[in-house]
From TrEMBL:
Protein name: DUF1697 domain-containing protein
Alphabetized SUPFAM superfamilies for the sequence: SP0830-like (SSF160379)
InterPro entries linked: DUF1697
One family name in Pfam for this protein: DUF1697
Amino acid sequence: MPMAKLRDVLNKVPEFSKVSTLVQSGNIKLDAPATTSEAVQATLKDLIEEHFGYDVPVMVFTRDELCAINEANPYKEASSADHRKVHVGFFDECPDAERVTALQSQAPFPQNEEFTVLKNCMFLHTPLGYGRAKVNSNFLEKHLDIELTCRNMNTIAKLLS
């Protein structure tokens, strides 16, 4: 969907201010101080479907939540060297602990890839880059039976800026 049009649509919502989007990443940054995350999520989902015809999952994080996720990065050293080699995978529901344990028991993964699951997200370290990764969102969705969307740490930094 065209990000400029999405911004125009969102700028018309009285509860939203300072609306911006990041390139074509599907990430939206906005202020909605008098609105709950759940209300923002529902509004975004409805507007995207109404104006663009897409029924897509929408995830909303407050700045504090995103800061906490950023701080929880277990691969900070790798992330400092190259933001594109570490990704955060966001999910609505935490994967089953037994599935996570079973998958982690298969380590080491190809190309020294590794992942860590936290309460509301997972971190994925792909030393050769995400484009070449075997342990990517498709792999993790299949093995953990979850829906996942990944963003690299560069995107997280831009969302927090």
